[in-house]
């Protein structure tokens, strides 16, 4: 049977395992994403974006750090309780030192990023919500990292998730995203299994072309320093949202 987003208990996302496997150091693929996204964010003057959103933020802080150079307010929207708890703990109480090298790289590539990690995350508001409930056109900029292709095994639902991503910004709003390429259903930690929807630069381009203009899709090769989840690298995207009709269509 095909696993859909609503079949999964996202409150049980294995935060500690996920961070240990992926974010305790800056891997080459992280550095490549940060370099790509920093070039995107350098287009904007410091604080030029009043409100931006990170869809499905998870426990990954570097997209929030990147956005802090341009955004006065960043909503980190996340449905999973364990991820929300981690984000709130990081922003309100204590910061894991492992994020300091990520902040240093983001700031080196974009000096508009605040000088301290705490200063960068001071822009962030954690929102415990399903991204499908966000009102359309609420933001000037939307960011999404390793979410749509990891939320379902169904390509049509992946495409719906991408449509929801575009619709969160006003027409003419800016988009930046990263996807795992050819990510199958995979294991994190010793036991937990999570959905994957294999996508490629071609399929990402196919989904986003009707929704955007100024679309740019690029590829990063697989990173041998990361766990072998079965993926073949990453797909990176920037674009400008066109008006999108319709809404998330739910399960198929």
List the helices and strands and how they pair.
Elements lengths: L14 H8 L5 H14 L7 E7 L6 H6 L3 E8 L2 H12 L7 H10 L7 H5 L2 E5 L10 E7 L9 H13 L1 E12 L5 E3 L3 E3 L6 H8 L3 E10 L11 E9 L11
Parallel strand pairs: 1-2, 1-4, 2-3, 4-5
Antiparallel strand pairs: 5-9, 6-7, 8-9
Short description:
With about 250 residues, the chain is α/β, with parallel strands linked by helices. The protein has one domain (about 5-240): Vaccinia Virus protein VP39 (Rossmann fold, 3-Layer(aba) Sandwich).
Structural features, described:
The protein has 252 residues and is of the alpha/beta class. It has one domain (5-241): 3-Layer(aba) Sandwich (Rossmann fold), CATH 3.40.50. It is 30% helix and 25% strand. It is built from eight helices and nine strands. Strands 3-2-1-4-5-9-8 form a seven-stranded mixed sheet, sandwiched between helices. α2 crosses α5 (100-109). The longest helix is centred in the first third of the chain and has 14 residues, at 28-41. It is globular, with a radius of gyration of 17 Å.
- The helix content is 25-40%
Number of strands: 9
**Tally of individual helices:** 8
How would you classify the helix and strand content by structural class?
A: alpha/beta
Give the number of domains: 1
Strand order of the biggest β-sheet: 3-2-1-4-5-9-8
The CATH topology annotation reads as Rossmann fold
Q: CATH top level?
A: Alpha Beta
Average pLDDT reading: 93
Measure the end-to-end span.
12 Å
What gross morphology would you assign? globular
CATH level-four homologous superfamily name: Vaccinia Virus protein VP39
Low-confidence stretches are 246-252
Largest sheet: 7 strands, mixed
């Amino acid at each position: 049977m095909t696993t859909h987003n609503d079949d999964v208990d996202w409150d049980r996302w294995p935060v500690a395992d996920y961070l240990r496997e992926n974010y305790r150091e800056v891997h080459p693929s992280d550095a490549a994403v940060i370099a790509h996204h920093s070039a995107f964010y350098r287009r904007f003057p410091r604080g030029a974006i009043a409100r931006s959103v990170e869809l499905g933020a998870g426990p990954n802080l570097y997209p929030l750090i990147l956005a802090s150079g341009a955004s006065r307010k960043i909503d980190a929207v996340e449905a999973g309780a364990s991820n929300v708890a981690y984000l709130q703990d990081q922003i309100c109480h204590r910061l894991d030192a492992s994020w300091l090298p990520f902040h240093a790289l983001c700031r080196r590539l974009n000096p508009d990023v605040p000088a301290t990690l705490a200063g960068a995350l001071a822009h962030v508001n954690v929102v415990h919500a399903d991204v499908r409930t966000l009102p359309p056109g609420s933001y000037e900029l939307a960011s999404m990292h390793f979410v749509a292709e990891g939320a379902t095994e169904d390509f049509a639902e992946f495409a719906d998730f991408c449509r929801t991503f575009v619709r969160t910004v006003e027409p003419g709003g800016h988009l930046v995203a990263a996807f795992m390429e050819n990510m199958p259903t995979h294991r994190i930690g010793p036991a937990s299994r999570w959905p994957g929807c294999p996508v490629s630069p071609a399929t990402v381009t196919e989904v986003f072309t009707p929704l955007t203009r100024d679309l740019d899709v690029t590829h990063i090769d697989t990173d041998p320093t990361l766990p072998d989840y079965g993926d073949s690298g990453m797909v990176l995207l920037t674009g400008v949202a066109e008006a999108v009709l319709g809404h998330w269509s739910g399960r198929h």
